[in-house]
């Protein structure tokens, strides 16, 4: 698939870039996407949730009343889960939610997500650019020139560019990553995928390994 290359003013440069079919033109695998997104979201969980069981509650272990003859239930401790302030039954405990996925499956999921974006014509390719200074106004102007002001965008750079990253950091609907940080969740979560000419080559080389 050929895509016109735009400059930072949103105008065509006359150049075109070939999006490789091996990355942007495969038959998407929905189950691979599901697993990769599930793993990504699971890895974001801290897993530090905790509630106290009855053996961890501070309180007396004195038997509340005699075993028989009260006409009520038998109660052995104020720390029982049946009482207000008692321990919790089967409450959450700290745990690790992360799980393993094979590299080939993760690669398939990312190529599937990129292919969906290409099929829906949601890929924009820019010529390589940089900002002279950190200015959020510069990034806002870039999005305005590309007519993407109200879109949720993901910009993929071939390598780290501090000026571009810091200029975009305060914008809610914008995220900037490098090609080696590309993940299925971010690709699908964005309305428009913005690539540079160099990042297209970087992605092709990365998925060819």
TrEMBL record:
Keyword tRNA-binding in record: no
Parts of the chain that traverse the membrane: none
UniProt record, GO biological process: translation
Keyword Membrane part of the UniProt annotation: no
Keywords, alphabetical: Ribonucleoprotein, Ribosomal protein, RNA-binding, rRNA-binding
UniProt-annotated stretches for the region Disordered: 46-77
One GO CC annotation: ribosome
Molecular function in Gene Ontology: rRNA binding; structural constituent of ribosome
NCBIfam families: rplD_bact
Similarity remark: Belongs to the universal ribosomal protein uL4 family.
Function: Forms part of the polypeptide exit tunnel. One of the primary rRNA binding proteins, this protein initially binds near the 5'-end of the 23S rRNA. It is important during the early stages of 50S assembly. It makes multiple contacts with different domains of the 23S rRNA in the assembled 50S subunit and ribosome.
Oligomeric and partner information: Part of the 50S ribosomal subunit.
Protein name: Large ribosomal subunit protein uL4
Species in which this protein is naturally found: Mucilaginibacter polytrichastri
């Amino acid at each position: 698939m050929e895509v016109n290359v735009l400059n930072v003013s949103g105008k065509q440069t006359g150049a075109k870039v070939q999006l490789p079919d091996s990355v942007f033109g495969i038959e998407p695998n929905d189950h691979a996407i599901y697993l990769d997104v599930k793993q990504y979201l699971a890895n974001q969980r801290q897993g530090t949730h905790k509630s106290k069981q009855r053996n961890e509650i501070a309180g007396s272990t004195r038997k509340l009343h005699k075993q028989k003859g009260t006409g009520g239930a038998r109660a052995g401790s104020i720390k029982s889960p049946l009482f207000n302030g008692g321990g919790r039954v089967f409450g959450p405990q700290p745990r690790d939610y992360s799980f393993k996925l094979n590299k080939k499956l993760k690669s398939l999921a990312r190529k599937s997500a990129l292919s969906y974006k290409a099929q829906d014509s949601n890929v924009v390719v820019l010529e390589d650019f940089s900002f002279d200074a950190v200015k959020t106004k510069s990034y806002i102007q870039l999005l305005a020139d590309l007519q993407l002001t109200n879109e949720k965008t993901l910009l993929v750079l071939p390598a780290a560019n501090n000026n571009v990253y810091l200029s975009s950091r305060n914008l809610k609907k914008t995220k900037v990553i490098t090609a080696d940080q590309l993940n299925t969740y971010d690709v699908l979560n964005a309305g428009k995928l913005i690539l540079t000419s160099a990042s297209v080559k970087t992605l092709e080389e990365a998925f060819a390994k």
